[in-house]
Amino acid sequence: MILLTGATGLVGSHILYSLTLQGERVKATCRKQSTIEEVEKLFRFYSGENANNLLKNVQWVEADLTDYYSLEDALEGVHYVVHAAAMVSFNPNEAQRMLRVNADGTANLVNACIEMGIKKFCFVSSISSLGRHPEDLEVDEQVEWQPDDNRSAYSHSKFRAEMEVWRASKEGLPVIIVNPSVIIGPVDWVRSSGRLFYSVRKGMPFYTTGITGFVDVRDVAEAVVLLIKSDVVNERFILNGENLSFKVFFSMVAAALNKRAPFLKAGNFLTEIGWRLNHTLCAIFGKAPAITKDTARAAHNKAYYSNRKFSEKFNYAFRTVDDAVKNTARWYLGNS
């Protein structure tokens, strides 16, 4: 039996699909306010009439990362754990809450896993918890995170969560950490990378000069399943399909959605004004900011990520970003 946290999210729902497709029985956690309707829709998108048969292998359980005893209850009868739950926010007002959920919540979970004798624990982290290569070369698993003023609260929370996982490994829990780049896949318009597609769909004229890694959510899910079933322990793996500029990526999205591609370059000066203006307006009207200092500056960063370790270890070929974008666009166009 496998316990999967965050099963209603972009990554979690695809991991759930991959596990059930292989006949695995899964306990999937959700919070009281969560809904499984999107998960059921996703299963139907990929499997049609077979979706109901796959969902029979899923046992939904309520659990909260901040409630240790609910985690112990969820771990009853479980041998393996995949931890994909996380709070993602770039709103400075939510920084402390994000630390509690992502870092303290992960500490609760690994402590419960140690107590319950879990055989293997896989943590879905992020490239945001990795460092930057000092010579601007590809970032691999050896490039360590260095705290600096440009780190987002989300990045810090994922790094802290990783430290809890590595600490648990020293206490006897076999662990694996995966660090996906920007994950592309079917999800609600207003969640995760769905916001990128939503922005293009509504008409986004501006692009920035940044470069980063992108990965198909199906690759992330398949990699996690491979790793949880393998004998590999106490290692990390970067999961990245391709390194692309934001301009190229948004042009792909626009083409897939039959929309106009962004055509105006937004330089540093414009984005610096943008996040400050947005911050002021949101403070006046009491709304969450659409653009923050962290997201504005990240839009100009140039980072390249290597997938060599995982690709060579498992002889795995990652899907192209174009394939990921087209798959995601089919989902949106079919559900809009």
Concise synopsis of the structure shown:
The chain is built from 13 helices and 12 strands.
Class by SSE composition? alpha/beta
How many helices? The count is 13
Low-confidence stretches: 269-290
Relevant CATH superfamily of the domain at 2-185 and 213-241 and 304-321: NAD(P)-binding Rossmann-like Domain
CATH class of the domain at 2-185 and 213-241 and 304-321: Alpha Beta
Average pLDDT metric: 83
**Element-level helix/strand string:** EHEHHEHEHEHEEHEEHEEHEHHHH
> Looking at CATH, which topology of the domain at 2-185 and 213-241 and 304-321 would you report?
Rossmann fold
* Main sheet specs: 7 strands, parallel
In percent, how much strand structure appears in the residues?
Answer: 15-25%
Enumerate the strands of the largest sheet in spatial order, edge to edge or round the barrel. 3-2-1-4-5-6-10
Please give the CATH architecture of the domain at 2-185 and 213-241 and 304-321.
Answer: 3-Layer(aba) Sandwich
Cα-atom radius of gyration: 19 Å
* Mass-distribution shape: globular
Measured as a percent range, the helix fraction is 40-55%
Distance between the termini: 36 Å
